[in-house]
């Protein structure tokens, strides 16, 4: 499954997930992990409704096995899909609140609470104070004290969602310093928001050049499509129509089967491709 996904052959990767799930029998861990990979691949393609079905099943597995921290973590992944991919904040908030009602953070051991994941969802919804409090709570745990990169990425998202791109750049650069392949897409988007197009393009192209194995399906699930869209826009604004057409084309191919509410972004990219084609004669 990893190899087809790494090569961008998402249809083949999805077929592999079907095969693994059908052969998993009564093994809930294999089934759950494979369903997560399936959800990521579907998100990458803008197929959020189908991804949510996979997340639903993983949540139910966690509920049945009594894996409460893991179940809540999956809830946050589903909420992020709604917030960052579907761009449906109301649905994202409803999903998160439903999960927290079933499994309050306070009911879990401190080191097993998905503080950062809940904080990222809160930040994407504009709940800045709540996100900051969750980030501070994570930093006070044993895990938070020994894993600063993860809090740096979340701190960057919090700043980016609060329209503080310079602070986001500082945080994402800190994450990149600790892990050169981590946080590149987020850093590029922060440069874009800060009005630094050359830096944004350079970093986003570095992100796309990183082998899938070191990027991961999880980050790609909500970053690959906006990275391609943003790069296409940056290249077109810079007059590099050849590169712009390449990135618009990659985006439209990636999201050709995206959910109907997301198809307006695909159509906008196709319109830009048509304009570029006319200009190029």
Short description:
This protein has 281 residues and is mostly helical.
Characterise the protein shown here.
- The chain has 281 residues and is mostly helical.
- The chain has helices spanning 2-6, 10-23, 28-44, 48-65, 68-85, 89-102, 115-124, 128-139, 142-146, 148-161, 165-178, 184-193, 197-209, 212-215, 217-237, 241-254, 263-280.
Write the layout of secondary structure elements.
Layout: H1 2-6, H2 10-23, H3 28-44, H4 48-65, H5 68-85, H6 89-102, H7 115-124, H8 128-139, H9 142-146, H10 148-161, H11 165-178, H12 184-193, H13 197-209, H14 212-215, H15 217-237, H16 241-254, H17 263-280
Helix pairs in contact: 2-3, 3-4, 3-15, 4-5, 5-6, 5-7, 6-7, 7-8, 7-10, 8-10, 10-11, 10-12, 11-12, 12-13, 12-15, 13-15, 15-16, 16-17
Rg: 19 Å
> Quick check: average pLDDT?
91
CATH class (first level) name of the domain at 181-281: Mainly Alpha
Distance between the termini: 41 Å
Describe the largest sheet: none
Just name the CATH architecture of the domain at 181-281.
Alpha Horseshoe
Query: CATH topology of the domain at 181-281, anyone?
Result: Serine Threonine Protein Phosphatase 5, Tetratricopeptide repeat
How many strand units? 0
The unreliable regions are: none
What would the keywords be for this entry?
0% strand, 79% helix, mainly alpha, Serine Threonine Protein Phosphatase 5, Tetratricopeptide repeat, 281 residues, 17 helices
């Amino acid at each position: 499954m990893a190899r087809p996904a790494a090569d961008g052959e998402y249809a083949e990767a999805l077929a592999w997930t079907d095969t693994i799930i059908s052969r998993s029998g009564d093994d809930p861990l294999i089934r759950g992990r494979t369903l997560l990979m399936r959800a990521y691949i579907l998100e990458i393609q803008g197929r959020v409704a189908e991804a949510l079905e996979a997340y639903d099943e993983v949540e139910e597995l966690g509920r049945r096995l009594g894996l409460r921290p893991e179940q809540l973590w999956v809830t946050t992944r589903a909420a992020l899909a709604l917030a960052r991919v579907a761009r449906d904040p109301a649905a994202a908030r409803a999903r998160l609140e439903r999960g927290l009602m079933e499994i309050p953070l306070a009911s879990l051991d401190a080191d097993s609470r998905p503080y950062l994941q809940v904080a990222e969802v809160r930040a994407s919804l504009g709940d800045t104070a709540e996100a900051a409090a969750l980030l501070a709570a994570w930093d006070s745990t044993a895990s938070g004290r020994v894993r600063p990169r993860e809090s740096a990425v979340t701190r960057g998202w919090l700043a980016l969602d609060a329209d503080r791109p310079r602070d986001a750049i500082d945080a994402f650069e800190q994450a990149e310093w600790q892990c050169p392949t981590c946080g590149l897409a987020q850093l590029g988007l922060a440069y874009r928001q800060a009005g630094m197009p050359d830096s944004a393009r350079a970093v986003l192209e570095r992100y796309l050049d990183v082998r899938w194995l070191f990027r991961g399906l999880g980050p790609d699930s909500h970053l690959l499509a906006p990275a391609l869209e943003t790069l296409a826009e940056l290249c077109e604004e810079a007059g590099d129509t050849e590169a712009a057409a390449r990135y618009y084309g990659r985006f439209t191919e990636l999201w050709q089967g995206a959910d109907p509410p997301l198809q307006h972004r695909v159509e906008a990219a196709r319109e830009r491709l048509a304009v570029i084609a006319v200009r190029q004669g």
